[in-house]
Amino acid sequence: MARHAQSQLDLFAPPATSPPVVGAATVSPAMVALARHLPRQMYLGTSSWTFPGWQGLVYDRAASASILARHGLAAYAQHPLLRTVCVDRTFYAPLPAADYATYAAAVPDDFRFVVKAHAWCTQPTRRDQSHASWRSHIPHEYFLHPGYAIEHVVEPCLAGLGPKAGPILFQFSPLDVPALGGPQHFAARLHAFLEALPRGPGYAVELRNHQLLSPAYREVLTDLGVCHCFNIHPSMPALHEQMRLIPPETMPTLLVRWMLHPRRRYEEATTRYQPFDRIVDDDPDNRQTVTSLCVAALTAGHPAFVIANNKAEGSSPCTVFRLAESIVQATAGASAL
């Protein structure tokens, strides 16, 4: 686990300030025109920016993942359709304000970051290092601990990113729901945690247990003005079911994470889709539903963020490009009504 976390940290290392060794790919006039027709409150982006297979899509030359981690963000942010990115590195370890500031300096003023909170905020147990079995866990003292979240997540994020900070996302990996006391008790603890956080930043919650997507959970979000992160993931109900419980127009900000193709497992998708340079498994149904979510939020006057993963269809930039076309068509049709 530690080795995996370290490899993730390497991929999400802050970009260096030395002269760039990778530039932005040439964008067609049609794509530039497409970007101009997108609503300004529509933010499309990907999970990280460190994929060598994006040469010609996002980057102008071949570059390793480590080079892109350090030099790729500025080139990524030059693409007219890529106006946000999810900072996954922060899920594995807290990030100091200086690193956030380096990110902010690399992107235009209208760019926004989706920032994952450190996993300690959302993990109820941790491994017992004194026990020989890897299965042995003890309660985690920082689970839903507002003081830890404020000091290690919220304050450095806002200090470093300033107005370029988008939603701060609390991602709950699959949980033992009975051990938490059930959906009602989880919702009560979540309410106490979120209520203690500073007002002002936009917060979002992503679940990976369908049982926790309950009326009590919806009431917590409604009461505090916190967003549900609509996610396309096998552990969660389909998007239209999430929409029935939590209408997108009722939230101050829309956040969608398009994570995994419904017919694929994560490891299978990784192998099948590498080097992530093209659509392999087209998913028009989810594209249409994501489009509907965005139109509903934008029509209500709310900003909308969509983060696409390479495992959604094969290439997250290509997913973003097709989704942008769908949103432009849908918003043009809505305006004509």
* pLDDT averaged residue by residue: 92
Helix count? Answer: 13
Helical content stands at 40-55%
How many strand elements? 10
Structural class: alpha/beta
Order of helices and strands: HHEHEHHEEEHEHEHEHEHHEHH
Low-confidence stretches: 1-7
Query: What is the alpha-carbon Rg in Å?
Result: 19 Å
**Cα separation of the termini:** 53 Å
The shape, in one word, is: globular
What does this 3D model show about the protein?
The protein is an alpha/beta fold. 41% of the residues lie in helices and 14% in strands. It is built from 13 helices and ten strands. The strands form two sheets. An eight-stranded parallel β-barrel has the order 1-2-3-6-7-8-9-10, surrounded by five helices. A two-stranded antiparallel sheet has the order 4-5. Helix 2 packs across helix 13 and helix 11 crosses helix 13. It is globular, with a radius of gyration of 19 Å. 42% of the residues are buried.
Compact summary:
By secondary structure, the chain is α/β, with parallel strands linked by helices. The chain has helices spanning 2-11, 29-37, 65-76, 89-92, 97-105, 146-161, 183-195, 215-224, 239-245, 266-273, 284-299, 310-313, 316-336, and strands at residues 42-47, 84-87, 112-116, 125-127, 137-139, 165-171, 203-206, 227-232, 254-258, 304-308.
